[in-house]
Design brief:
Layout (H helix, E strand, L loop, with lengths): L8 H32 L9 H7 L1
């Protein structure tokens, strides 16, 4: 059995903040990517024609 023994609040707070910042960063990256695809790739209009799908692949 493993127990979490925190001698002070900082020893628990730091890993939680690190994990939260990684999660927030990943979410912001996904939002920025979706925005850029919709803005510059004319999503979803370009994929409606079958020939464009084959050009993409």
């Amino acid at each position: 059995m493993t127990a979490i023994r925190a001698e002070n609040a900082t020893s628990l707070f730091t890993p939680v903040c690190l994990a939260a910042s990684i999660g927030v960063g990943a979410a912001l990256q996904a939002l920025a990517g979706a925005f850029l695809v919709r803005r510059f790739a004319a999503w979803p209009g370009w994929i409606e024609a079958e020939i464009n799908i084959f050009k993409f692949l």
